[in-house]
Queue: 4 jobs
Job 1
Amino acid sequence: MLGIAAAAAAGGMSPSRVMGGVQAVGKMLDFGQEEEDLKSRHHCTDIPCLIVFIVALVAFAPFYIWCISQGDVARLFHGIDYRGRICGVDPYVANEPYLYWCSSSSAQGALSLDLADPICVSSCPGASQPSSSMTPFFGMQPGCAFVSGLEGMSAYRTVVMLGRYCIPHSSFTDYQSLVSQISGKEMGGHTKKLMRSVSSIPSAWPALLAAFMISLVVGYLYLLFLRHCAEVLIWISMGMCIVAFGWFGIFLWTHSKNLDTNGVDVGGTIGLEDNEQAAKIAALISWSLAVIVALVACCLRHSVAAASACIEVACDEMFEMPSMLLLPMYKSIVKGLLVLVLIYGFLKLVSTAEISTYGGNGITRDFHFTDQQYVLLVYYMFMSFWLLAFSTAVYQFTVAFAVAEYYFTEYDHEQVKDVGCCAVWDGLHIGLGCHAGSLAYGSLLIALLQTIQKILEFAEKQNKEVQNKVLDCILACAMACVGCCKEFVEFVNRNAYIDMAITSESFCDSARNALSMMVQLGGAMTILNGATFVFSVFGTSLITLSSGAFTYWLATSCSAFSDSRSSLFIDSPVTAMAVSMLIGLYVALCFMDLLDMASDTLLFCYGVDIQDGKLGHTAPPALKDLVHSGEHGDGPGWRH
């Protein structure tokens, strides 16, 4: 210390200025060391859980292979003939994949079918004929001689439905009645639409792939919009809510006397006999909601602005680390493929059950499982839920680590954080290499609750056949409790993975720290989660609708899809649009999960700084503003 003072005197500088510079350099070194420590501090946690998880995977792998080898998905969908053989699957009918109902009589365009005894055929009679063909005779069906006699051997014209069933052609006068009899449902008038809809999906694959890419592009554009205009969006949404509730209240009040004549039963909906009085009460409730939203906007305006700024900071962080922008695409592809693989194996396992026809029409069927098969089904569901939950946990930990590394990086002289390009890959490596056991532990809890939930749902379905009111009430309460526990555990797990990425604690310790942090940051976390929810709703709607609109435009305007002579012709644009909207919804959820996880991690990191007695020099100003807004009388802030 004396040496520093002497050097300062010799150089013509005051000792206080030199000491200030030394402290500043020391602080910078501390922050640099802290950034390095974020990677070096991590060690393996919950190793016993990792061993259990590996053993479970090793046991599940041969079981999955057995399901693939023993099952046949065609058993679930192909028709069943009068002898109980599944067309195209069972011996003797393996080369006859179509189900055909023999005619019992045919006169003057009318057709009568033997619905109880369908047969398997190699092709549907007349299905390959052009639509303009008027030929009434389409060969003979020898198999019909056993069920309908010689008269039934004369084949009638059919069309292929769902690639498995020979349905009477629409040229028959009683076509709708025949199809309704076959299906056992009133679907005769919708058969053509159903056939067109299903057949449009395979040919629409280029449009669906393009919709997936459009969903990604719109997702990135939405994040870019939030980066600069998050506050504008949330104020617009609040204004729209106020206007919508206010307008709806005015509508109900002014039309309260006319609702009866228009067939609107507001009173029955809320349990009142007087429809006019019920409408006015609903109007008052709507106006009250408008006032509540307005009061929230006024009283928490500073906190709302701070939360919006935090969302903008989270988007800034994503764009400053380009590798994070690839995570939604990776998640949508990897998890989507995993879901498809697991569903395929589950269908294979279900197909090993004994199958019998229900109603004798060859379409509906009953599945008869042994006790051992029920156990295998539960085991398969549990392992599937565990794998899916583990993939989600790895994704969340990876995001949390990358965001934490961004947070603890100090601002440079241009107020920009210079973060390495490998933060995401570091998070993935550390998550799998050090904390796979902890992630498997948290995932195990989710998988157990999901499995119990499915078992209770199955029990409830079985109870509907016996109508036991007491058991129905017990099951409803149990399902509600399990569902509530699952939602709570999922929320705690998210924050536990964030704490784990920062502290390298085990799962139990991280969950305990997360609960403590949620109490300390309760107000700020509520405001931030509310803002994130608004942005997620807008983003999900935008991406989903954009995907659907783009596909519909392709199917109706692009000649490759709208020209009936094209091999890619989409016969039902609405069906293709619906499928593309599901794809867009899935991609949108991946983007919104990234946004939610990034904003929560930033807030959690600042909470850790405060708990450790640090000043949060690396924290974005918006975070400080959000957390400490309650100290100035505007909304909930840090709880000491």
Job 2
Amino acid sequence: MAGHVTLLILMTLAAILMACSAISDLRWREISNGLNGLIAAFAIPFWYLAGWSPWPDVTIVMGVAAATFAFFLLLYALGAMGGGDVKNVFAVFLWIPTGIATQALMVMALAGAAVSAAMLVHQIITRPKDKPEVPYGVAIAAAGLWALHQQYLNQFQVIGSS
């Protein structure tokens, strides 16, 4: 029972940190390295308490997170993404089991489209002089929070099921 409580505490901390990264990106267009580091660091005890084995569970999750990081790094190199967003997507995807990674990417894409549409409306209304920056950390956090909810709000119990 203590392991389940600790798992819930870790997931709550991760959710708070993901929400903080979204708020930070929304307000300042910046996600700190410390925040990304904490999200990534808390994934390690989460894996253990959720019962993920080093092989293949953790290894594959790290591979998916690295592949997502590589794709976002390409977007960063093209000027379409900020560096904090690239690090944030890696940290958040360390929490997402491979069985729902594709769905999490879809959630992130839909949330990103909604954020982009809101930014477009804001730009039309306010007509800022600077080029708008889309706070994609909001979409990344939405995907992470969606994945976390699978443990206690989804009857199928994708995360940590035994």
Job 3
Amino acid sequence: MSEHPEETGADPKFWEEGPTLQIGHPVFMNYRREEFHPPFALMEEMIARLESIENEGSRLPENPEWAKKALRSIYALVDELGSQIASGMSCNAGCSACCRVMVSTSSVEAALMIDRLSVEPEDRKESWMEIVRDRNARLKELAAKTSPPADLSTFEGLLATCEDWEKENLPCPFLGEGNLCSIYEDRPLLCRVCWVLTDPEDCNPGAGPPVKFRTKVFEKAYFVVRDISRRHLKNGSVSPIPWWLESH
């Protein structure tokens, strides 16, 4: 399978958003001036594992259930890498700054979140959906202000509205008590790879922007998830989390 974004249906602009540090040096220092050694051997192994998932998906006929199983494998993989790099990052439980930005989500990621909603108690589900409807109403207002009006089922539409959305400083519908995620096990890929190297103060509204940690593992995972969505759910688009949930 090709790794070129234009051939996988992924969006090359995604990895150009904001200041980032592509890790290629054996050692670097974070904002606390602590040395950090990226686990390069593990990262190479993970690229191979992602390619194996990608190749398996390309050989199979359309199979949404396989797609969701594959996504969970990808989640486990990036979480494993996350556990290896966390000590060098600025992020901690309860920070929640990244829970107030626009998260582009694929159809297979949305399918897992919708499955999660289906097993929740009705009162909790309705509480979440009330927030989802409120967020979507605001998203529509912001999209209508662009020229032409932004299509929030496209990556271009997300780019056109994301800056205004972040100024709203509205939390994700699933941000719960203690600023912790209420669907942590089923949160989207971007929530799992949003690691920051700079001072946490840079993540506050109006500050920063923070410098994000990027690796080829996270990039490859993003492209594979998009490819799986196109092949097995016949929908390669990306949309904000609330957009998917209210439409299903």
Job 4
Amino acid sequence: MSYSGRPLPSHLRNTSHSLGGAQSSSSQSPVLVARIAEKKAELANLKELQALSAGLADQMQMLADKLNTLSDGTEAIAAVLSNWHNVLRAIHMASSKLPKPKEEDDAEKKPEAEAPLPQTLVRIPTQHAPALIPQSTSGSIAD
């Protein structure tokens, strides 16, 4: 047998000289084998735990990203809802300032009773209207 230059750890050294030869080495061999098997099982469990922990960390990171997106969306919705009061107030102001037509003139011009519409609050340019009209009619036919 060749001898390597480094000494063995104390728990792996053969203690047959001090404890009675072959009996102690044969009794320690199954103990060492069992301990090695136990350590291998522990190592396998630790590797599995490490892999599961990495997966959990990835899932938590994805959840954090989704919560950030949800938080941003909530802030946007809050901003829109805070503006609704101003929008409704502007519509009310525009509706209240409508000119009231005289009942005599209205009866002569329009026999049906229609409520007056509020003034236009938003002006939409009609430059692209001819291109949009075929799209809107084809969409309504398909529905």
